[in-house]
């Protein structure tokens, strides 16, 4: 006979199920956790001494990061997979170069203009809107896998080269056509027209798979787009492809699973 669970009614199994249902409350960041996550001794920016400049603490159910406010010399902060909902305690860490708070509980981004920040990872949070983010040296911004319906004010990031926005709820491309961009991901949104992308003069590949694009007018004629993927969009007439004739650099185009392709093998 197979072994029976403990107790007359399967007590062990019930306990295990109960444990799975229990929701852990986020914890506050303690001095002990901070000490364990600090590394990399480097000279301070003002040259007057040395400080630990890297902090890493992934997947630790930390929600309150107030204790980090005093660590002014941090340059690299990585805390993916926690329960952070408020970034304001980081406001005074002015020399930050890289910040990874992906897979947390952020519903908005309240950060001052961090003058030296170059990499910001906000993927997998609960952001619905981002407006007026200003980071003069920001090069790489990942906001994929959120619930974004609108993104605006990115013009305040003149150095931005990589913008990852796939798997959100964007319905418009307005404000996304930044001339500085070399890469943008927009797959898995609900974008209906591409007029807002007219300024994407530095992007070579544009992937709009799984969006609701019907009209192609507005893509940058003077840009570098060589590869355009419109698979699973809603282009329904051959005439709408006329706009692509302006893009002299275009070499590869996918229109699979669009209404315009019905009847083609």
TrEMBL record:
PROSITE patterns: LRR. Keywords: Leucine-rich repeat, Repeat. InterPro entries: Leu-rich_rpt, LRR_dom_sf, SDS22/Internalin_LRR. SUPFAM superfamilies: L domain-like. Residues 1-27 are annotated as: Disordered. It holds the Pfam family LRR_6. This is Uncharacterized protein. The lineage of its organism: Eukaryota, Cryptophyceae, Cryptomonadales, Hemiselmidaceae, Hemiselmis.
